[in-house]
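> forwarded from #structure-qc
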């Protein structure tokens, strides 16, 4: 009788141990537990730590409450200005209601992924190429609103959406490069023209200033000559003296015309190279005659 009692006690202890092992559950800090009893949702979400359920009656489902980073596959689309692009993105979301995430949607991860892909295609068709390349913050906000609206009923909150990369066709890249080069060349020409305009204004002011002081113009000319002569590989040629310039500046138009005529007359009167050669040859012809005359005088 005593042996049977001991065996019964041991059996009860073993059964309690098996029951405790089957009923014991541990929920981690970043998880929440949702309990179904005979297929019906039990009220109250099990928090992190140790918890018990009824074995073979209750079923505990653990939902991860961490922020999920999900890449959105690259989507091909045509922008509003008829440019074919390939855009990929990344989405950050988290579960805020474990019961809704488990009951209202079959697989909340798959649902969010599909919604992100369709929203990305939609935002590509509504945007221009310039917006995709330079105004991504606005597109990210619009994409986040498009995904967050239906996901609220799933117990999921969209934390952030970012467009990672926009791939363009090679022809479009070359066209954009030519456009950028043309724009830079246009700006360079405008800057050069502006510089020429400013320089012309300064030169006109300098000319008006030097008009009252002819000596200033001469000093400027000498400075230019010195600057040119500083280079060893340069040859400086002055066709007429500086004094002539001073005379022409101070002279009246009539006197300047007379000076020019005088210079031209002097040039005409100057012997030509052929005449110089003839003059050089004539003394050589006279030398024999002079020698013969000298000999005659000696004989006499």
């Amino acid at each position: 009788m005593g042996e049977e009692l001991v065996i019964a006690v041991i059996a009860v202890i073993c059964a309690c141990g098996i029951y405790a092992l089957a009923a014991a559950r541990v929920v981690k800090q970043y998880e929440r537990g949702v309990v179904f009893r005979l297929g019906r949702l039990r009220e109250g979400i099990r928090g992190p730590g140790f918890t018990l359920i009824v074995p073979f009656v209750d079923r505990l489902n653990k939902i991860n409450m961490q922020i999920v980073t999900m890449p959105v596959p690259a989507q091909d689309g045509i922008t509003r200005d008829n440019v074919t692009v390939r855009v990929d993105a990344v989405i950050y979301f988290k579960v805020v209601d474990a019961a809704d995430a488990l009951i209202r949607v079959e697989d909340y991860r798959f649902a969010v992924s599909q919604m992100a892909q369709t929203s990305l295609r939609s935002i590509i068709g509504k945007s221009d190429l310039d917006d995709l390349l330079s105004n991504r913050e606005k597109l990210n906000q619009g994409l986040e609103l498009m995904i967050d609206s239906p996901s609220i009923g799933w117990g999921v909150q969209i934390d952030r959406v970012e467009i990672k990369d926009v791939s363009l066709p090679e022809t479009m890249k070359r066209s954009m490069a030519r456009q950028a080069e043309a724009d830079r060349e246009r700006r360079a020409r405008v800057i050069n023209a502006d510089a020429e305009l400013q320089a012309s204004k300064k030169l006109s002011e300098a000319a008006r200033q030097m008009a009252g002081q002819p000596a200033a113009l001469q000093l400027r000319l000498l400075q230019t000559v010195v600057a040119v002569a500083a280079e060893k590989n340069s040859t400086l040629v002055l066709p007429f003296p500086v004094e002539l310039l001073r005379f022409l500046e101070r002279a009246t138009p009539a006197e300047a015309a007379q000076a020019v005529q005088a210079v031209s007359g002097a040039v005409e009167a100057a012997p030509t190279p052929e005449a110089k050669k003839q003059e050089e040859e004539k003394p050589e012809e006279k030398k024999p005659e002079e020698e013969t005359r000298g000999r005659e005088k000696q004989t006499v």
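QC bot note: DSSP finds ten helices and eight strands in the chain. Strands lie at 24-27, 31-37, 40-41, 49-52, 58-64, 68-78, 84-95, 156-167.
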